[in-house]
Request: fold
Amino acid sequence: MDSTSRVKRRLALAIVTVAGLLASGFVPARAGDDAFWEHLFKAYADEWGKPPASDPNAPPARWGAPFPPQPVTSPPYPFTDWPYGGASTIGATLPNSVGSPLMTALAPTDFGKWLNANHIQIYGWLNAGFNVSSATQTKAGNFPAAYMYRPNMAQLDQAVLYVERLPNTVQKDHIDWGFRVSALYGENYRYTTAYGFLSDQLQKRDAFYGFDMPMVYGEVYVPWVAQGMLIRFGRYISVPDIEAQLAPNNYMYSHSFTYGYDNYTNTGAVASFQLDKNWMVQFGLSVGTDSMPWNAGKTDPGIQPTGTACVRWTSNSANDNVYVCANGINNGLWGYNNLQWYGGTYYHKFNEKWHIALEAYHMHQRNVPDVNNANATPFDSLVNGPFKAVCSGGKDYCMAETVALLGYLNYKLNDLNNLTWRAELFDDKNGQRTGVKTRYFNYAFGWQHWLSPSVIIRPEIARYEALDAAAFDGGTKRDVTIFSSDIIWKF
Reply:
């Protein structure tokens, strides 16, 4: 085993066993490690087969302001408020509010008491799964379907550790603050990697498993500006989208093209203003998308002052939510992932059983070299650099465009089970996102079964079709059908 493989295995092991490492230093010697593991086991046993119990001593989660109610429950959904990016939920975020088994097990220890007193939480999850595919090429037969791009195998998707402090946005009397430091190891690192930060794993070695820190940010909450203002600064997940890189934040195990090929992370700052109970606006300034500030200049022309602007509206009943954004906005020069993103999401709750989530966007980049253009680019040395474009009329450069339409239909069977249908049309007009100029159609059906609030399994079947050209199985097939399932085990 080479040194790189040993480092990766140690990183994964560190994430998985952090609970034991922490406990061994802070549990009293006479109790030994057994006390910690007993508390951890009991935390899982007490919640097994049950939805999360409400805390009768918890303060109200809307601080008396007439905010719309929480529209859905978690479980069986990955959220309780219609999601938005760039901020902890204003009016509904409380310190120490993540009820993780690890924090429960640490609670009796001196370290756990210190964490609780300082409103710091440590938690995470393991996410592993498998797929059985009609694709046959072993290396990347499912590609350009994103995530689980290798067919017919089991894999560690992500082992994730969070250390965070949540700001108290359920109050109006003082400024509060928070932070999050995240660590991720697994196959999914390639969908969070920012060029110039731990990116050699992907861009020089094409490592199947890798390590990343997709979120390293601080937050400041000021309650006196409008109905609350929150500023997030650092590296954070891009603001729009139904889906997310982090497994517990998704309805399904697989991902759409719509999510697999747009903006992932930004490095900068975004300010969110809750204007009243219905309206929120956001303004952000970053250095670009999925690339670091020290890449400015010849290394990545996409690194430049980059804007974000969003408007969000929620109805009084919370049955409707519209979230419209312009993200990654600058001069649009072809860069590592310099996508000019205009679009939004819409959620509608029909009743306690049914709701839909819809997304549409238009993306583009300018001055993208044609696939037959042999001129040198800043990304020629990268193993997984950005694709060029199929330009019309024999042009050497052109604007590459993408249009996406995505829909999720959800049916809540009960508090621990949900059924999800996904349908999508993704038009890679110049082939710059997936490497093939074609329209894609994707439809999928999945079941999310919560064994407890901390353990979820998500079996599903998905079909992906390239309507205009062969794109799958190394460019030999126009379609691929994938059965897959995963497990998320939170700690």
In short: Residues 283 and 410 are 31 Å apart (CA to CA). The chain has seven helices and 18 strands.
